[in-house]
Amino acid sequence: MSILKIITYPDPGLQTVCKPVEKVSKEIQKLLDDMAETMYAAPGIGLAAPQVSQLLRVIVLDTKWKDKKGEGELFQLINPKIIHREGKIEWEEGCLSIPDFSQKMERSKKVTVEALDKQGSLIRIEGEDLLAVCLQHEIDHLDGKLIIDKSSRLKRNLYLEKIKKHLPPESKKHDEVIF
Description:
By secondary structure, the chain is of the alpha+beta class. It has helices spanning about 25-40, 130-140, 155-165, 170-179; strands at about 45-50, 60, 75-85, 90-95, 100-105, 110-115, 120-130.
């Protein structure tokens, strides 16, 4: 397994709609393993393929590993899709691709997700509270949606000003186009 580079906002790859995986190949299985290792090393509880520059509908998440000292519940999901939503919950969310930024988000309290697992079998996951929020957050990444998109223009601009001095020149040009 390898630790992959996590790209950060405002990289345009983060706002791209990802393509579905056509076949669960050894390359996809390796990507899932590399993403899991990257997520644990970051450390985070979820990671979507576009965050590591792979524009495929693939996510990994484990909302329990931090509390259980490495004995969590890893989900490696291919082509995840929310098929049921229930209730509402507000959650303060962060993102590995938007360091030092958080945004209060309104999400569904419970979700049911259908996806393929690492072996290509169709599975269903029912998530509530943090697991539901994490599933929605990572699936949003596959649709090119970021938590910063839900913030006010003022909050986004303040964040961009804060990170601007660390951006490469080509990102600064992109930043001017977006905002």
